[in-house]
């Protein structure tokens, strides 16, 4: 353990020079027109993602030898023994559904606001989980998208949560107190607060393991993962393990195949086939909950300006994938600074996806959007566009921030916090707009 840690720090120093490591975990550290700091905090390295975006990710450079594996960024906290009793207010047990171009929550169709938190299932203090859901409930946020995966190639140190160990061709699901029991508490607390969860099963990126962690254990590559039998068997077993825990829970908004799946340079049939077969598999386990892909919305000819996100280079065809029967709604994300577009361009991106969803007769969820500064002035117009766009039935900003027992929740640069002016603008005011529009 110690030597691995030292090696990681060393390689980080070598890559970053002797400059003070500055960019936060998962923050931007490079890309066309990027002028900020290019060095990452200790334990992270700057990894190229596309021409417009490099990101600080865990560990040593992927081109270096394989001794380094995933470490976790979760703040390690002591296990709380005190359980707060959460609000006992009656919440509906109806499942989330769709009606035409709208989602239904508690059987009411409408437009819903929500957020993302990749970290909530990795917390070890139940009170912190309850705090987030009580603040969300009070604020009128209805949906939280969380990471339902946390894959490692070596077991992390005590106090660090992980969900699945992938090693030497074998997958071992961790159902212990530092494993899926942490996600159990998230679902339980969401249930008692009336919050609906989107739970995904794997990451395209290497944060919290991702496809790269499967590749380390099962071989192949990032792009062959989608058709690699051993990797897909492990992935499906994992899906089954998670779904079997919560298939009767009214707190599930949807099951999601992956966070931002891409197959760079692949024919669009690769992802199409994978989405089709995986969504059918999920419906065979649980036909009552909604299923979505979790993609960024790339590859679209509706209102396309031919820019990188509208193109098909990441192996996605939005219209074709949305047509799959077992996919209940479309997802799209928006990060102009990572994609080489302007912030204003984002409004057209929202409109074009709403139009594509309306064509398909299914709702769209504006599932992630973020900027690293001027949150209110840049993101509020996107929210207004989404709210008035037919075919878009909800939005989830990236990402939720709050003050936990350990201090502020992780800030990847895009975070804004409960109780701030930005929260007032993008949550309180937005929720009021949604209410007056309905
Ligand atoms: C995830 O996205 C990055 C950025 O495009 C890409 O380099 C990587 O290959 C992707 N992974 C997969 C499995 O497509
Ligand atoms: C995307 O899918 C749609 C619907 O199947 C199809 O009409 C279109 O030609 C596809 N575009 C590309 C570039 O594959
Ligand atoms: C990036 O920089 C180039 C050259 O300075 C400029 O023409 C272009 O508009 C910039 N792109 C963005 C998205 O700011």
TrEMBL record:
Annotated ranges, domain CBM1: 21-57
Reaction catalysed by this enzyme: Random hydrolysis of (1->4)-beta-D-mannosidic linkages in mannans, galactomannans and glucomannans
BP-aspect Gene Ontology terms: mannan catabolic process
GO molecular function: cellulose binding; mannan endo-1,4-beta-mannosidase activity
Region (Disordered): 60-83
Top-level EC class: hydrolase
Protein's UniProt keywords contain NAD: no
Top-level lineage group: Eukaryota
EC number(s) given by UniProt: 3.2.1.78
Chief place of localization: secreted
Gene Ontology cellular component list: extracellular region
Transmembrane region(s): none
Signal sequence bounds: 1-21
Keyword list, A-Z: Carbohydrate metabolism, Glycosidase, Hydrolase, Secreted, Signal
Family: Belongs to the glycosyl hydrolase 5 (cellulase A) family.
Name by which UniProt lists this protein: mannan endo-1,4-beta-mannosidase
Annotated source species: Penicillium steckii
């Amino acid at each position: 353990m110690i030597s691995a840690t030292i090696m990681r720090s060393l390689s980080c120093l070598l890559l970053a020079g002797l400059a003070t490591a500055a960019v936060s975990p998962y923050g931007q550290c490079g890309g066309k027109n990027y002028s900020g700091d290019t060095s990452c905090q200790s334990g992270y390295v700057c990894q190229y993602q596309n021409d417009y975006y490099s990101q600080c990710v865990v560990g040593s450079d992927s081109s270096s030898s394989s001794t380094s594996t995933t470490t976790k960024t979760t703040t390690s906290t002591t296990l709380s023994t005190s359980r707060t009793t959460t609000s006992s207010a009656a919440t509906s047990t109806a499942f989330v559904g769709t009606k035409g171009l709208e989602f239904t929550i508690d059987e009411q169709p409408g437009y819903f606001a929500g957020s993302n938190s990749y970290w909530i299932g990795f917390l070890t203090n139940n009170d912190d989980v309850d705090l987030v859901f009580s603040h969300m409930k009070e604020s009128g946020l209805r949906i939280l998208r969380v990471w339902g995966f946390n894959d490692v190639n070596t077991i992390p140190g005590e106090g660090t949560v992980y969900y699945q160990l992938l090693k030497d061709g074998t997958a071992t699901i961790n159902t212990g107190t530092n494993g899926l029991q942490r996600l159990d508490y998230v679902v339980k607390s969401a249930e008692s607060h009336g919050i609906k969860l989107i739970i995904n099963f794997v990451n395209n990126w290497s944060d919290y393991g991702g496809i790269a962690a499967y590749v380390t254990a099962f071989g192949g590559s990032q792009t062959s993962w989608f058709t690699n039998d051993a990797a897909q068997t492990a992935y499906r077993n994992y899906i089954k393990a998670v779904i079997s825990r919560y298939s009767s829970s009214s707190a599930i908004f949807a099951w999601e195949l992956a966070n931002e799946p891409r197959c760079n340079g692949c024919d669009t049939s690769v992802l199409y086939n994978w989405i089709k077969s995986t969504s059918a598999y999920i419906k065979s386990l649980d036909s009552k909950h909604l299923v979505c892909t979790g993609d960024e919305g790339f590859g679209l000819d509706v209102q396309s300006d031919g820019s990188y996100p509208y193109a098909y280079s990441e192996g996605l065809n939005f219209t074709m994938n949305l047509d799959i029967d077992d996919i209940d709604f479309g997802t799209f994300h928006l990060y102009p600074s990572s994609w080489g577009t302007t912030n204003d361009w984002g409004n057209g991106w929202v409109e074009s996806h709403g139009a594509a969803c309306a064509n398909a007769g299914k709702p769209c969820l504006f599932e992630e959007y973020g900027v690293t500064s001027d949150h209110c002035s840049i993101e509020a117009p996107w929210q207004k566009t989404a709210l008035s766009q037919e075919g878009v039935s909800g939005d989830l900003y990236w990402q939720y921030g709050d003050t936990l027992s350990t201090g502020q929740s992780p800030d990847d640069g895009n975070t804004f916090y409960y109780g701030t002016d930005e929260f007032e603008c993008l949550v309180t005011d937005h929720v009021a707009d949604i209410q007056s529009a309905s």
